[in-house]
């Protein structure tokens, strides 16, 4: 490798890392939090069989899962301003990513809720708990444990999806790499570098996910 | 003193009538055995009485207040459940909670009793079923018999006026049945009012004082336990008792 390329890679590294820490990671965390909150609400609505709301949720999931994320981003960022709805780029990225992932995560959470036996819910009623108390103390904690691995995968997926925000002018890590490349024309080196940073973070997250699973299992009285 | 009286309980599933008008009166201290072949509606009856299923018709009198089983409100249900307990065939312990937490949850969260008092009551209940040495265990670390005893303690801690049991030993390995029946026998001796669906004939004969025999959603015969086992009036009852005894031996 010639010295110029090496120089470029080394110079780019702190900048990429800075934009990763400043934008990629916060956008991931915020959109994940939004997705998880919404997913739990959607899943609970379906689990509790609230008639009207349930239909609404199915409709929402149908729309979101049936359209590409990139199209959703464009629609909100470039499309909505023409009817007077203008949301800045970063909030748009957070909201669209969050709303999108929520539709998928809701199914994960719902499956996890369903995996807790209805008998435990009935037992909860019989000892005088309300539906929401049963959810809070019995069903959700167990469902969380079941859903944890899949939620971890969602988080990793979302980290990578934040790179799509580059297309709606958000200068996160990937767009920063594009900008640097615009000056120095070293696509192979720079995009490899940015790919490796994504890979590094995902590896770290996978490792944390494993650790979390172990912790959760130890907590819940796995058979000894 | 009358604790519970139900009248004309009816329930259909998918257009098929499973309960066709069941009546029962339970006095304080009664141990009532509900017997009958599989599919006769025993579980459904018990579930209707504790509102896990909504009956299509019938009345329920508890604490001298009569309710329409079909129209009873959530609030009335909550009120009655404060004074009853239910033991399931499949235990249904909360799997994310320890033995102690299982018994405490209804007290702390359901009844807003302080943690210290709740803990004391839970330990006392667990002592009564011989499970005080497993406070910190999780349900899956226990045998079926132990789980069922914890489930009984979970009900006992609520200080109920009546406990409903739906085949509490049917899911157990034969060698574990005895420990659960012994706990129930002791409760009966202490005067606990119990309504028990069971296939354990010997237990029903020796512990219950009243028997209700049902088939196809109707009561075929009911009366004192002694009368029922020694001089059954109905031919159908005699056949059933003989059949069960034969299967057992
Ligand atoms: N939720 C339900 N939906 C539809 N049918 C049901 C439901 N629950 C019970 N049944 C039907 O009602 C009938 C009576 O069932 P039930 O469980 O009350 O009988 P059982 O006397 O408890 O029998 P077993 O001794 O086998 O426990 C059965 O034919 C059963 O299939
Ligand atoms: Mg049954």
**CATH architecture field of chain A:** Orthogonal Bundle
Rg of chain B, nearest Å: 18 Å
* Overall outline of chain B: globular
Enter the CATH topology name of chain A.
Answer: MetI-like fold
Helix count of chain A equals: 8
Q: What assembly state would you assign to the polypeptide chains in this entry?
A: heterodimer
From the spread of the alpha carbons, the general shape of chain A counts as flat
Percent range for helical residues of chain A? over 70%
The largest inter-chain interface, given as chain pair and residues per side, is: A-B, 24 and 31 residues
Largest sheet geometry of chain B? 6 strands, mixed
* Number of DSSP-assigned strands of chain A: 0
Low-confidence segments of chain A, given as residue ranges, are none
Percent strand of chain B equals 25-35%
H/E element string of chain A? HHHHHHHH
Question: Can you tell me the CATH class of chain A?
Answer: Mainly Alpha
| Spatial strand order of the main sheet of chain B | 6-7-8-3-9-10
Tell me the Rg of chain A in angstroms: 21 Å
SSE string of chain B, helices as H and strands as E: EEEHEEHEHHHEHEHEEHH
Structural class of chain B: alpha/beta
Q: In which range does the helix fraction of chain B lie? A: 25-40%
Give an overview of the whole structure.
The complex is a heterodimer of chains A (224) and B (249). Chain A is an all-alpha fold. Chain A contains 8 helices and no strands. Chain A is flat. Chain B has 249 residues and is an alpha/beta fold. Chain B has a domain at 93-160. In chain B, 39% of the residues lie in helices and 26% in strands. Chain B contains 9 helices and 10 strands. Chain B has helices at 42-49, 74-81, 99-110, 115-128, 144-156, 174-189, 201-207, 225-230, 235-248; strands spanning 2-13, 16-27, 31-35, 57-62, 65-68, 84-87, 162-166, 194-197, 210-215, 218-224. In chain B, the strands form 2 sheets. Chain B has a 6-stranded mixed beta sheet, sandwiched between helices. In chain B, strands 2-1-4-5 form a 4-stranded antiparallel beta sheet, with helices on one face. In chain B, strand 4 (57-62) and strand 5 (65-68) form a beta hairpin. Chain A binds chain B through residues 116-117, 119-120, 122-130, 133, 137-138, 141-142, 145, 220-224, and chain B through 50, 52, 78, 81-82, 84-86, 88, 90, 92-98, 105-106, 109-111, 137-141, 151, 154-155, 158. The structure holds adenosine-5'-triphosphate (ATP) and magnesium ion. Magnesium ion is lined by residues 42-43, 167 of chain B.
């Amino acid at each position: 490798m010639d010295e110029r390329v090496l120089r470029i890679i080394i110079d780019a590294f702190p900048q990429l890392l800075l934009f990763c820490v400043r934008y990629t990671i916060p956008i991931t965390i915020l959109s994940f939090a939004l997705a998880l909150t919404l997913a739990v609400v959607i899943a609970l609505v379906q689990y509790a069989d609230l008639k009207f709301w349930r239909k609404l949720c199915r409709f929402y999931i149908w729309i979101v899962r049936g359209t590409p994320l990139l199209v959703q981003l464009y629609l909100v960022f470039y499309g909505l301003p023409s009817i007077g709805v203008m949301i800045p780029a970063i909030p748009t990225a957070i909201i669209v990513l969050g709303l999108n992932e929520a539709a998928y995560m809701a199914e994960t959470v719902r499956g996890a809720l369903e995996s807790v036996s209805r008998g435990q819910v009935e037992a909860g009623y019989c000892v005088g708990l309300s539906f929401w108390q049963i959810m809070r103390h019995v069903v959700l904690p167990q469902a969380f444990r079941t859903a944890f691995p899949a939620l971890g995968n969602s988080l990793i997926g979302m980290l990578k999806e934040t790179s799509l925000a580059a297309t709606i002018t958000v200068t996160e890590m990937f767009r920063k790499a594009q900008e640097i490349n615009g000056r120095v024309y070293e696509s192979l080196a720079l995009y490899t570098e940015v790919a490796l940073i994504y890979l590094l973070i995902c590896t770290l997250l996978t490792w944390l996910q494993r650790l979390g699973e172990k912790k959760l299992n130890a907590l819940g009285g796995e058979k000894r | 003193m009358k604790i519970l009286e139900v009248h004309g309980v009816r329930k259909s599933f998918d257009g098929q009538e499973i309960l066709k008008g069941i009546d029962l009166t339970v006095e304080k201290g009664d141990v009532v055995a509900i017997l009958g072949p599989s599919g006769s509606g025993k579980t459904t009856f018990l579930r209707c009485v504790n509102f896990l299923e909504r009956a299509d018709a019938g009345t329920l009198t508890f604490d001298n207040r009569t309710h329409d089983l079909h129209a009873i409100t959530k609030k009335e249900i909550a009120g009655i459940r404060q004074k009853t307990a239910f033991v399931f065939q499949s235990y249904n312990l909360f799997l994310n909670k320890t033995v102690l937490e299982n018994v405490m949850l209804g007290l702390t969260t359901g009844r807003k009793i302080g943690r210290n008092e709740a803990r004391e009551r839970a330990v006392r209940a667990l002592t009564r079923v011989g499970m005080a040495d497993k406070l910190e265990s999780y349900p899956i670390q226990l045998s079926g018999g132990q789980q069922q005893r914890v489930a009984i303690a979970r009900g006992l801690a609520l200080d109920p006026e009546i406990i409903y049991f739906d085949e509490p030993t049917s899911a157990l390995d034969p060698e574990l049945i005895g420990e659960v029946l012994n706990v129930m026998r002791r409760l009966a001796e202490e005067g606990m009012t119990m309504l028990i669906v069971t296939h354990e004939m010997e237990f029903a004969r020796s512990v219950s004082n009243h028997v209700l025999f049902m088939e196809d959603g109707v009561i075929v015969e009911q009366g004192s336990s002694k009368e029922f086992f020694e001089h059954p009036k109905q031919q159908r009852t005699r056949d059933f008792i003989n059949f069960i005894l034969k299967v057992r031996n």
